[in-house]
Specification:
Elements: E1 6-10, H1 23-26, E2 27-31, H2 68-72, H3 79-90, H4 96-100, H5 107-131, H6 143-169, H7 178-188, H8 192-198, H9 204-230, H10 235-260, H11 288-297
Antiparallel strand pairs: 1-2
Helix pairs in contact: 5-6, 5-7, 5-8, 6-7, 6-10, 8-9, 9-10
């Protein structure tokens, strides 16, 4: 029979006539009990462990902080997804936590921060070169590189930890994990890439405008996505947390402007010229060597 899951029952008439088997009248179909676990005639279920194509979910493997697999799970994202998240940070159309979809990453935030560091060093060096009136003998100041690394990595690494700790303290830590806070702050830095590329001009007012636009876009992105998280606390605490986020981000914008794109920047130190060389001994007017030279030359 082609009908799987059914038993065939033949109804024999009282006279025992086995030759009369009218399918329309004598065949009845009943639900099979082969798959009933209480039936001793039930079939033995197949062993799914021996099937390499089985889609049965396996138990998740444990990951510990001291193993590479624990950190590798947060870098398991392709380039197209990172670009999509960068676009969502620049042109937000939906909450960024929904864009992450429960899969935050650290790959994008790390490379965004690294790109910002090197662009700040490059454009800060150009601004320094222009501030010195195009000196021929220009020396690169690698303190700009270390300063940019400390500023960007420090801000992106420690501020989300502090925010997450405060959320945990006030009972709202379940609304956002630490990795989500890192991812949110990391993708918020993407706006500083175009800002740093165009803020090296010697026109100070124009640089202030560029940095102000970058600050407004990035802090708006942070506040928009953090407000549903911090609003789980009471009204006063949520306002204080948002004000703290805005104030710290304003400090970052000011540090970028003053340290890298200001001609009077503390990070741009004009080297002091060396003192004039002292006259060497034996060249004075009254020494014997000088008198002999003047006598030979007829002076």
């Amino acid at each position: 029979m082609a009908n799987r899951g059914y038993d065939v029952v033949v109804d024999v008439d009282a006279e025992g006539d086995l030759g009369h088997t009218d399918l329309q009248e004598d065949l009845e179909f009943h639900s099979s009990n082969f798959t009933d676990p209480t039936n001793p005639r039930s079939k033995i279920p197949p062993d799914s462990s021996s099937n390499p194509f089985s889609t049965a979910p396996s138990a998740p493997s444990k990951r510990f902080l001291w193993t590479l697999s624990f950190y590798a799970q947060y870098f398991d994202v392709d380039t197209s997804e990172v670009l999509r998240r960068c676009t969502s940070a620049l042109y937000p159309r939906s909450p960024f936590l929904d864009v992450l979809d429960g899969n935050p990453d650290l790959y994008g935030p790390f490379w965004i921060a690294t790109t910002v560091v090197f662009i700040l060093f490059l454009t800060g060096t150009i601004s320094q070169y222009l501030a010195r009136n195009l000196e021929k003998h220009f020396v690169y100041d690698f303190r700009l590189l270390s300063g940019a690394a400390g500023l960007i990595y420090g801000y992106t690494g420690f501020i989300p930890v502090a925010l997450w700790g405060l959320l945990r303290w006030f009972g709202a830590g379940d609304n956002a994990s630490l990795i989500e806070c890192w991812s949110l702050y990391g993708y918020a830095n993407v706006i500083w890439i175009p800002v740093a590329l165009i803020s090296w001009s010697p026109i100070a007012a124009l640089n202030w405008v560029f940095v102000g636009v970058g600050f407004a876009m990035s802090v708006g992105f942070l506040v928009r996505n953090l407000w549903p998280v911090v609003s789980a606390t009471d009204a006063k605490t949520s306002r204080l947390l948002v004000l703290g986020v805005v104030a710290l981000h304003a400090a970052l914008a000011l540090a970028i402007k003053i340290l890298f794109f200001a001609h009077g920047s503390p990070a741009i130190k004009t080297p002091t010229p060396p003192p004039p060389p002292k006259p060497s001994a034996g060249v004075g007017k009254g020494d014997p060597g000088s008198k002999m030279v003047r006598a030979l030359l007829g002076f």
